[in-house]
Amino acid sequence: MAEAEKFMGSDNVEDILTKIENKSLKIESLIKQYKPIEAIKTALEGYPPQDERCKFANWIGVRKALMAIKDVEGILRSLNPQYYDILMKYVYRGLSTGDRTTCDQCLKIHEKLTEKAGFGCILRSLADTVNTI
What we know:
By secondary structure, the chain is an all-alpha fold. The protein has one domain: Actin-related protein 2/3 complex subunit 5 (Serine Threonine Protein Phosphatase 5, Tetratricopeptide repeat), CATH 1.25.40.190. Helix content is 74%, strand content 0%. The protein has helices at residues 2-9, 13-32, 36-44, 52-67, 72-78, 84-95, 100-117, 119-127.
């Protein structure tokens, strides 16, 4: 979670966008290396600040990682439970896009994540209005 500290430690939006872009490149590299577990972990690290450009830039990297998931159950087994609520927030972000491919993938993840983490995961992700994505 050191990445979260990096985002919060800088007030300059351009610096934060550069860090998010570097993170996105790392995600792409991990996907190309067939390491989806590492890609999703990297994607879920750190909340971007409340600036909308930062949120959108971060979403692009997370979406790439989400779309690369083939074995949802395997990914969830490998993820630390601390990431479940964050993942659920991004699943809802993906569902809000209206893009059919993204929504289909997010629904698959939502089903398996709810089975694994329970309904509390849904409630916590919807109720958290401080850490929005």
